[in-house]
Design goal:
The protein has helices spanning 3-10, 15-24, 28-36, 39-54, 62-80. The protein is an all-alpha fold. The protein has one domain (3-80). The longest helix has 19 residues, at 62-80. The radius of gyration is 12 Å and the shape is globular.
């Protein structure tokens, strides 16, 4: 289990968000996002999005959150040698 996989496993996120991100992680767009940005940058952006989701909601974009989560899932799968 990689460090990124452990980090993702420890996150508590809504089931709908995770399900959507898992499906989106199969796309080529998620693969490109995962290759373009380092995992640390994606994790930082995900943290900001989650804070906005839990807070007042200003500036929160559910579609952006799914895109970032899908890139993280794709990166974790790539590191683990899966698709």
């Amino acid at each position: 289990m990689t460090e990124l996989t452990k980090t993702l496993a420890a996150m508590l996120r809504p089931r709908l968000l995770i399900t959507a991100a898992r499906m989106a992680a199969l796309s080529d767009d998620a693969a490109r996002r995962a290759q373009r940005r380092p995992s640390a940058a994606l994790l930082a952006e995900e943290d900001k999005l989650n804070t906005a989701r839990l807070g007042d909601g200003l500036g929160y974009s559910a579609s952006r959150h799914v895109a970032v989560m899908s890139a993280l899932i794709r990166a974790a799968r790539t590191q683990a040698g899966q698709r």
